[in-house]
């Protein structure tokens, strides 16, 4: 088999994954696109290993390491996406650029102090909610 066939297929897979990373807004589709890019790299590693007739099969060994790392990456990535979805209600990447909570009314957005709320603050917030309801 000629080396051009798997190389062209790997380029097509990688470009498809790159398009998915750049164009998609859903975090799960972005993770799937990264996996597609890793599979394109794996295809190249195995194809060059076979083409060079490596006696140590280094390309295949690197492919196994890449598969293990990809499995760990997708597990952690999905856990993070599910946690963010549970907390924010969306997995849209554009909406998740700012992971910090927005400043409350009357608070300076440039203030970096992260003071813990006191009991008085909680009571005032409850009273304000009752008045608006």
Automatic annotation (TrEMBL):
Its main location: membrane. Residues 94-133 are annotated as: Disordered. It is found in: Cell membrane; Membrane. InterPro entries: NADH_UbQ_OxRdtase_chain4L/K, NUOK/Mnh_C1-like. Its EC number is 7.1.1.-. It is a multi-pass membrane protein. One of its GO terms (biological process) is ATP synthesis coupled electron transport. One of its GO terms (cellular component) is plasma membrane. Keywords: Cell membrane, Membrane, NAD, Quinone, Translocase, Transmembrane, Transmembrane helix, Transport. NDH-1 shuttles electrons from NADH, via FMN and iron-sulfur (Fe-S) centers, to quinones in the respiratory chain. The immediate electron acceptor for the enzyme in this species is believed to be a menaquinone. Couples the redox reaction to proton translocation (for every two electrons transferred, four hydrogen ions are translocated across the cytoplasmic membrane), and thus conserves the redox energy in a proton gradient. HAMAP family: NDH1_NuoK. Belongs to the complex I subunit 4L family. This is NADH-quinone oxidoreductase subunit K. It comes from Streptomyces violaceusniger. The lineage of its organism: Bacteria, Bacillati, Actinomycetota, Actinomycetes, Kitasatosporales.
């Amino acid at each position: 088999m000629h080396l051009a066939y798997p190389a062209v297929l790997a380029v097509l897979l990688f470009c498809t994954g790159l398009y998915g990373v750049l164009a998609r807004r859903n975090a799960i589709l972005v993770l799937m696109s990264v996996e597609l890019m890793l599979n394109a790299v794996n295809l190249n590693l195995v194809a060059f290993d076979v083409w060079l007739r490596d006696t140590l099969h280094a390309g295949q060994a690197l492919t196994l390491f890449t598969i293990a790392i990809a499995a760990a990456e997708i597990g952690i990535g999905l856990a993070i996406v599910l946690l963010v979805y549970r907390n924010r209600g969306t997995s849209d990447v554009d909406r998740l650029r700012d992971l910090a909570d927005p400043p409350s009314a009357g608070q300076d957005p440039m203030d970096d102090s992260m003071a813990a709320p006191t009991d008085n603050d909680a009571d005032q917030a409850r009273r304000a909610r009752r008045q608006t309801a």
